[in-house]
Write a structure and sequence with these properties.
alpha+beta, 8-stranded mixed β-sheet, single chain
């Protein structure tokens, strides 16, 4: 906290003010010296409060998006925060898990771990449960797993032996200094903008000093202090804090809408996104699978019922049938239950992948006893599902001592490895014409929006290690099961909103093309005449061909993780800003390559989350769109704040230069300029970034490399600042011509400047919408800031102690009426501009 407070003074502007305070003290202006120090302290305290609040917000959001670990406690599988894992816990690992503690394997099924982060070896290590030598090196501890490593294949159980700094990676961490988070592109733009602004303001202020001292013959101290104060007031030293607060507030708003930001760059990137590449299952759809159709070699059976309630009927030609009475259907259901890692006891007691849960519910509808079946055929070996295999294989011991091999996977993969199909009198050879007919059947199911998986088996498996090649062409085709995964509520509207906002939505899925096209048409990604494209076609394209193709399609089906990266790069080469979703281990490269990598909070692996810039807690596409909306709102609010600060600073410089060139006295004292800087910038800058977002989704995205100060913002600056400056100079001249003392004229100019800047703060709430069409109290922080600023100004005008310090004279009611009338001219001018622009658009 102390370092944050001290940091508030670490600015060239602050050094200038401290120098001015010392000069004031040395020439006997002790009051001025102490007031400058007072203003500096107040400014630092306000910056400190806002920055610590922002940091606390960011830290709390990090807690919300902290990694989770599956553990077994009291016999139940629970998901807890990784920081709550303790020695003695049993943790469950599967493909894609990031290991969060050191531990000893008690179960390892084809489990391989990438330990490059610890050992530097890129090859994955196969893990075992057997004992090893006590003094084995880390690389040779094959029955151990270490925090920070990544499971790339298989699954297993581990007893935790060490956590936190007690782990091997923790011991190394003690020797390494933490690296600060790098500045985001937006923050780097802000720094460049700040440096340019310092140069421009310095030139203006030096010009004012030269004119005042050498041409107008003002005293060195007087013009020196005014020039320094003008420089400090014109350069928005509070802007970095305002940006930090804007990002923190934006992150908080996103978190409330279930989008957790892991990297600040994502916040600004969201405002510029032109493409959102989204997975289908669970993101565009509910991921609440229901098995709706069963197809064997002999039958096509429709299944009624929805969700995870085991109630429904099996229909052949609209007549009820018992699937257990049919040998083929019975076998298909057996395979779907045995080659399955999900758990299902009741609608409220489920675990595992939704697709696998749907198969268990399907078997329960048929009247099968799931537990009895699994006990009768205990699993002895398995090949877990991996994206590159697109299938899962299990081996089960039969009561007669033999083995049953069960396989499920993508229809084309299953058909490819099958050699037979069931027929009258025994298994028959699966010829190429039959295979083509089966593929046609799966495609017809996919066109009905069904997610299709194929199943096969081998009843007389051998007692040896399970290998795909050893059973290829020996397997018997069992059938297809088609699941329905309906679109999520609100997705269609979210896609329409993206289209309106100039963002193209692309579906990138591993599903069958027909299924993807059907869902895409239903939710509005594809128009009726449009078609999708498959990953195998992308694989044979050159980079140039891909760039020419990628923008012509909105559905990419049968996509492998490597294809995602190809799509991203092809779009980025055409200057597009790409957001990409992912959940698996193999999605990590694509998530890193994307401008905004988005990991799924529910189904996403730890590796995907670590590689992403943002995690969406509910895996919902609409949440991504909400985050884009919030990201645009943040950028817009920061620009509002910049516009306000530029108008304030340039108005003051225009007033000073105009007075010097016109041969007038200096309208504002240095101490008055510093006070205005405090009560306007201090009370309103942070408050403007709290402004509720406007309808930011009815305009195109920001250009990728668009500067902080846009042409539109500059036009607004050149429109407002001269109006504001003219009013202040006019009031000053009016009082002088009336014969009022210089001190009185300065007090009127001083108050007019304050009031004008408050009014402009209200103007800056929106660049396009009339204030009369906005809820006035929607930004209560701004209202409170205006009230506080007004009270401070009244104190300076009417409290004798402060009158002496700031050299002010109490104003009369008639003065206030003129100040309000003149100060509000910028408001009416801006309202007129908005009205004219609005009429032109109509």
């Amino acid at each position: 906290l102390f370092s944050i407070f001290i940091k508030q003074f670490q600015s060239p502007l602050i050094y200038i003010l401290l120098f001015a305070s010392i000069v004031s003290f040395l020439v006997g202006k002790t009051t001025n010296s102490f007031v400058i120090l007072f203003v500096l302290t107040i400014n630092a305290v306000m910056g400190f409060i806002q920055e610590t609040r922002a940091k606390r917000t960011m830290e709390s959001l990090k807690e919300l998006s902290a990694p989770k670990t599956k553990v077994v406690r009291q016999g139940d599988i629970k998901e807890i925060d990784s920081k709550d894992v303790v020695p003695g816990d049993i943790i469950l690992l599967e493909s894609g898990s990031k290991v969060t503690a050191d531990g000893r394997f008690i179960e390892s099924i084809r489990l391989k771990v990438n330990e490059a982060s610890l050992t530097g070896e890129s090859l994955s290590v196969h893990k075992i449960t057997d004992p090893i030598k006590f003094d084995a090196t880390i690389a040779d501890r094959l029955n151990m797993v270490f925090s920070g490593t990544i499971v790339v294949e298989g699954r297993g159980k581990v007893v935790v032996t060490a956590t936190g700094m007690g782990t091997e990676i923790g011991k190394i961490s003690e020797m390494i200094q933490s690296t600060p988070e790098p500045k985001t592109p937006f923050q780097r733009k802000m720094e460049s903008f700040g440096k340019l602004l310092i140069v421009i303001v310095s030139i203006q202020v030096v010009a004012a000093f030269i004119i005042g001292y050498f041409v107008r013959n003002f005293g060195f101290y007087e013009i020196f202090l005014v020039a320094l104060s003008q420089m400090v007031s014109s350069i928005p030293e509070g802007l970095p804090v305002a940006v930090t607060v804007a990002l923190a507030v934006g992150m908080q708003r996103m978190a409330k809408r279930k989008a957790f930001i892991r990297k600040l760059a994502a916040v600004e990137g969201l405002g510029s996104a032109t493409y959102i590449c989204s997975d289908k299952t669970g993101t565009l759809t509910k991921n609440e699978m229901t098995s709706r159709r069963v197809v064997t070699m002999s039958h096509r059976i429709e299944v009624t019922g929805t969700g995870y309630t085991p109630d429904g009927s099996f229909l052949i030609n609209e007549e009820k049938t018992n699937p257990l009475d049919d040998k083929e259907t019975n076998m298909l259901l057996n395979v779907s239950v045995l080659c399955n890692d999900a758990g299902f006891k009741s609608k409220t007691d489920i675990s595992g992948d939704p697709t696998e849960i749907a198969y268990l519910v399907l078997a329960s509808k048929a009247g099968m006893d799931l537990e009895k079946l699994k006990d009768a055929f205990p699993r002895t070996d398995e090949i877990p599902f991996e994206p590159h295999l697109q299938m899962m294989m299990t081996k089960h011991k039969k009561s007669d001592g033999g083995f049953l091999i069960c396989v499920k996977g993508a229809p084309e993969k299953i058909i490819d490895i099958c050699g037979y199909f069931p027929g009258d009198g025994g298994a028959k050879e699966l010829t190429n014409p039959v295979k083509m007919e089966l593929l046609r059947k799966s495609e017809l199911m996919a066109k009905d929006s069904l997610r299709v998986l194929g199943f096969c088996y081998l009843e007389h498996g051998e007692d040896k290690k399970l290998e795909i090649d050893s059973v290829r062409n020996k397997l018997i085709f069992a059938g297809f099961i088609g699941n329905m995964d309906p679109p999520r509520e609100g997705v269609k509207e979210a896609i329409r909103l993206c289209e309106k906002a100039g963002i193209k939505t692309i579906m990138v899925t591993g599903d069958h093309l027909a299924t993807a096209e059907s869902i895409a048409r239903e939710i509005g990604i594809l128009k009726e005449a449009e078609e999708g494209i498959t990953g195998d076609l992308l694989n044979v394209m050159s980079d140039d061909e891909l760039q020419g193709t990628v923008k012509n399609f909105s559905v990419f089906a049968r996509i492998e993780p490597k294809n995602k990266q190809q799509i991203i790069i092809a779009l980025q080469k055409q200057n597009e800003v790409v957001a990409m979703t992912g959940d698996g281990v193999n999605d990590a490269p694509a998530l890193v390559a994307a401008d905004i990598g988005i990991a799924m909070g529910i189904t996403g692996t730890d590796v995907a989350k670590e590689s992403s810039s943002m995690v969406i807690a509910d895996d919902n596409f609409a949440t991504i769109v909400n985050a884009v909306e919030e990201g645009r709102g943040i950028t817009t609010n920061i620009r509002k704040t910049i516009l306000y600060l530029l108008c304030s600073g340039n108005t003051e410089i225009l007033v000073l230069l105009t007075a010097l060139i016109a041969g007038l006295n200096i309208p504002l004292l240095a101490i008055q300029i510093l006070w205005i800087n405090l009560i306007t910038d201090g009370c309103l800058t942070i408050n403007l970034v709290m402004e509720p977002k406007e309808n930011v989704m009815d305009r195109p995205p920001d250009k990728k490399n668009e500067p902080i100060v846009t042409k539109h913002l500059l036009r607004l600056l050149f429109f407002r600042a001269p109006i504001m400056a003219a009013g202040i100079i006019g009031m000053f001249v009016y009082e002088i011509l009336k014969g009022q003392p210089l001190g009185y004229a300065r007090t009127v100019a001083f108050t007019t400047l304050a009031f004008t800047q408050w009014i402009n703060g209200i103007n800056c709430r929106s660049e396009h919408i009339s204030i009369f069409r906005m809820p006035f109290f929607s930004n209560r922080y701004l209202i409170l800031g205006l009230i506080a600023a007004a009270m401070f100004q009244l104190m300076v005008l009417y409290v004798p102690f402060f009158q002496n310090i700031f050299e002010t004279i109490p104003l009369k009611i008639s003065d206030w009426l003129r100040i309000i009338a003149v100060g509000s001219t910028v408001f009416w001018a801006e309202e007129l501009r908005k009205f004219i622009v609005h009429r032109k658009k109509l």
